[in-house]
Design goal:
about 250 residues; Rossmann fold; four-stranded antiparallel sheet; 9 helices; about 25% strand; binds adenosine-5'-triphosphate; nucleotide-binding; AAA+_ATPase; ATP-binding; ATP hydrolysis activity; ABC transporter
Length: about 250
């Protein structure tokens, strides 16, 4: 693993039924990075996140996270990472505090509930039922859950989908705070504006391949046909004909 890399993915492939969902993907994520994964629906983003967070195993290739080999040391890694899916259904009927406490039980190392509530501005809502909160506060609750074990790496699958602009801004400002604490964050998003302004680097997926991976600014500046935004990068690599380029 390169110095500074906390995630190292080497030539990873994964089949899901008849689908070749991930095709020889290689990349690294460095310590403290906010790393975005983008691509069309079905491109393989969630499957990739599941592979690097230890939720599933590759058919070929290797994944090393924080120096742990995911094939042999997945259980040891659990304490050091957290994986947040988009849904809040599981915690809908609980209070915010109950939800945090339930997830704390999964880990040996945990942060005090009141500290987490305060950090995420959730103290006034601690005894409210999650389902009755606004979308922004619900997503803030799920993000708070994702730090209960003080993880070094957090994986987020489309956490801001459905949020209004203000709630998105609040969400990303909390992510920026977590990054300042040195946490590494890998996030899937369909919102090219938030990807452009908030991520350190972005990987673009197309049909199971990682077709390009760099900082948003570099990707924009090096667009072969020009363009000023991540939207143009998305159209070029995730949708357009350059989607077959290997990195
Ligand atoms: N359990 C499964 N069995 C068979 N094929 C699957 C399974 N889960 C996903 N796939 C297929 O694997 C491919 C990658 O799916 P994946 O969910 O990773 O895409 P995605 O980029 O996350 O899409 P979205 O943006 O819609 O969430 C798709 O073609 C999908 O239909």
């Amino acid at each position: 693993m390169d110095k500074g890399a906390v995630i190292q993915v080497n030539q990873v492939s994964k089949h899901l039924g008849a689908n070749h969902a991930i095709k020889q993907v290689s990349f690294q994520v460095r310590q403290g990075e906010l790393f975005g994964v983008i691509g069309k629906s079905g491109a393989g983003k969630t499957t990739l996140l599941e592979l690097i967070s230890g939720q599933s195993k590759p058919d070929e290739g290797s994944v090393s996270v924080l120096g742990f080999n995911m094939l042999t040391d997945g259980d040891k890694l659990k304490e050091h990472i957290n994986f947040l899916m988009g849904t809040t259904t599981l915690i809908d009927k609980m209070t915010v505090r109950e939800a945090l406490e339930m997830f704390q039980d999964f880990y040996q190392r945990t942060i005090d509930t009141d500290v987490v509530l305060k950090q995420f501005g959730l103290a006034p809502y601690a005894d409210k039922i999650v389902k009755r909160l606004s979308g922004g506060l619900r997503q803030r609750t799920t993000l708070a859950i994702s730090v209960v074990n003080d993880p070094e790496i957090i994986f987020l699958d489309e956490p801001t989908t459905g949020l209004d602009s203000q709630a998105k801004r609040e969400y990303w400002s909390i992510l920026a705070g977590l990054r300042l604490q040195g946490k590494t964050i890998v996030i899937i998003s369909h919102d090219m504006t938030e990807i452009q302004y908030c991520c350190d680097r972005v990987g673009v997926m197309k049909e199971g391949k990682l077709v390009v991976c760099d900082s948003p600014m570099t990707l924009i500046e090096e667009l072969p046909r020009g363009g000023l935004t991540m939207e143009a990068v998305y159209m070029e690599y995730a949708v357009g004909s350059r989607g077959g380029v290997e990195v």
